[in-house]
Amino acid sequence: MADSQAGFDIPPLKADLSRLKADVEAVNALGIQPGLPGINRVSFSDADMAGRRWLMTRMADAGLAVWMDCVGNVFGRWEVGDGPAVMVGSHLDTVVMGGPLDGTLGVCAGLEAVRSMQDAGLTPRRPVVVVATADEEGRFGGMLGSQAICGEVGPDWIAQATDSDGTRLADALTGQGLDPTGDTAWRPESIAAFLELHIEQGPVLDRAGEAIGLVDAVSGVFNWSVTLTGEANHSGTTPMDHRRDAFRGMADFGHAIDRILAEAGGPQSRLTVGKAALSPNFPHSVAGTASFSIIGRDADDAVMEALAEACRTRLSEAAERHGLELDIVRHSWLPPTRLDTDLHARLCRHADALGAPYRTMPSGAGHDAQTFARHVPAGLIFVPSVGGISHAPNEHSDWDSIHPGATLLARAVADLAV
Ligand code: HGY
Ligand code: MN
Ligand code: MN
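That is the input. Now the predicted structure with (2S)-amino(hydroxy)ethanoic acid docked in place:
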């Protein structure tokens, strides 16, 4: 066996960057929708399922045992050794008009880690499982795939879950031949550790010219759908003081965001209204209904609670001011989570051995690693995002800047499995 890597009983593996790049480009070709920019493999769309089926063939090509569970999680298990498995991967679903790397890179890098171990002739002493989770982007709230694997959600939660358009998760699953009533939970003792590589989705590494971010904590996130209901009416004959204009209520809340952050937030707080709709949605009609999303985030649970309470207060005030009814659907609440310190230290040692510039940093975005971290040791490796752009078609990372992180992932998986 080649000289072992400094301080580790494994050879100095290297990810095959061109093989990794080819996989990312192949699965993203399945997310191209005519007339829609970016990558579109939204949860349980035909494109999402096509991406999962493509991945299953690639996993089989690597000699893995492959299956899809009841909620669409795809697994490829390298049947070697025994005992709890090292799980590596990320999510394969995207946001609408998403980028080419969010989630997708981590899934393909997980498969690449296995192939680079195979190329090096390694025989792990424990199984390695590559996973592509379902609906991490939370179309139906939460992080369905990793939460289903970890037993945090099951058939009862699935039965009540809807997306922001009111589509039922159970119907979306059955529409793709999946089973909303099935058992998806793994026994925690069957997973030795979970590792994820992900683009940073922020500007820190890119600005610092560093190749790797080793995450120690992940922000929490709450996901609401809000409906303000007033009265549709004529925009010409209805006096301004006789209106129950739902748009005005939504606008008042939007205007209150800075005040909420000042009064209840902190440096890591984020409030976003990313989706909104008016009804009847016609220029000459006063809006009878305003429906919109609120995503709130913070690295501290108490601050997240304070943000949520302040949002509720401002929404109620806006509704009262404009004579509106207020309804809030709370799709999910994912708490801020610290990642495993021993695993983080191990990743630092690998980064030191690699000689790649790295830093320890928090994650403002949510990730499957934060779900797993509540049940098993979990680690999260960031690679730079050019300009920090993500959840947008121009999300981009230079492949040369991805290589150190992909190699670190492979070495860490080998270190845990061999
Ligand atoms: O939105 C997020 O935090 C992640 O991309 N799901
Ligand atoms: Mn992601
Ligand atoms: Mn995302």
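The first helix runs from residue 17 to 29.
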